[in-house]
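# step 3/5: fold
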Amino acid sequence: MHTRDASADNAIQLERLEFAWPRGAPLLDIEHLVVTRGEHVFLQGASGSGKSTLLSLLGGVLLPGAGRIDVLGTDLTALSSAQRDRFRADHFGFVFQQFNLLPFLSVRENVLLPLRFSARRRAAVARRGDAQGEADRLLAALDLDPARHARRAAGSLSVGQQQRVAAARALIGDPGLLVADEPTSSLDADARAAFLALLFGECRRARASVVFVSHDGSLAALFDRTIRLSVVNRVPGIGASR
């Protein structure tokens, strides 16, 4: 009788993860953590609790001192640096606090940037049509009219508009995991809620999992689950709540 591997449903699975900076005290000690495919998780914790470090570990930018990091069925700790870079380009979408747009490029050119670095994402876009059309579809889905804005320099946009361009860039090519680090900190409460509603709608279409970091605890109710990091040396089974 065939037994289905439950781990196939996991976007992220961490086992006995330990991390410390050189000559520093342990920062993260996570016995077990799972994020399922398509799940939207809110990551909360005080400054110094390791939120940004955990995101860097999930993206393969950092490696743990011990333990396993399995993302979308791949053990990142078993990959070389170049292989991790390729995996990140193929499967991750990132939205940063400062958005990290290239201000001298147009809105559409910024959205298309991930396709330059990933054949997998180019192929995903090609299955639905042409790249420009997909970029414009994402902009429209995120409430940014491509007819008005696609050719504008990204640096000329408002903060809220730049945020939506950054989200479209992160989502193009159907990445399996969207990672967002304080992307709504410069927006008011109504704008934050509206942006997340648009973002989640597009993520659900692509069945992308979301790991979203914010100090704003009022956003937690909009997510499937909250994971709380504490400034402690060990987090067995990691604190989580629905």
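# step 4/5: annotate
The first strand starts at residue 10 and ends at 20.
# step 5/5: archive (pending)
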